[in-house]
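Show me a record, fold above all:
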Amino acid sequence: MPAEGHRAKRVGRPPRLSLEVIIAAADRILETEGPDKLSMRRLANELGSAPMTLYYHVRDKDELLMLVLEAHAQHIPRPALPDDPRERLTATALLLYELLAERAWIVEVLTADDLFAPAALWFVEMMIGAAIEYGCTPEQAVDVYRTIWYYIVGNLIIRVNSRRYQARTGTPIYRDRAFADLTPDTHPHLAAVADRWVELSTRDSHRQGLTAIVDGLLPIRAAAHDNSAAGPTRRGPADR
């Protein structure tokens, strides 16, 4: 475990702080203020300590973020998933989305594509394995995973930024002004739904969209079986 490694390497650290206490305090800051507000100085203030004291336990902010991510990942439930690989892929992706929606700051950290929690890699393994079992090559299965991951991240990032903007500015006057100026002559389709735009554009359609993405990415099983000697002949995710 990374935490044990640090305990073995650091000497002379102050006894009143532990790595667990530091991780818990960092998690509170991340949850209430977001990753941009987390710094070693801010964390030290939260703990009533000096910034240099924290370096007895963690190397830097990135390592601290990794440890917080891992602490969360170790408590992720692993429910029974469907036997059918297509259903398993969809169910795993939905579970990942729902868990991340509860901790939106994690999405912002993970978009760096370098920090990750080893304990959460079973999500990736399960999704790639389901795609391969359904008929994808390993390369195509990675593309399937990446496409779904980008959909999840995009959905959650938009949600987070929208909430922040609303909290900061209140009513979105620029959008309302733009929609008020629409006419059926120039934008007939938008004008027809302008008065319901907020309702329609904020509906929870994630499951519907994810299902459509999975259906579009996975091969047609009959075609894959008929051409098994030559390999899948349909367009793979990399070709789209």
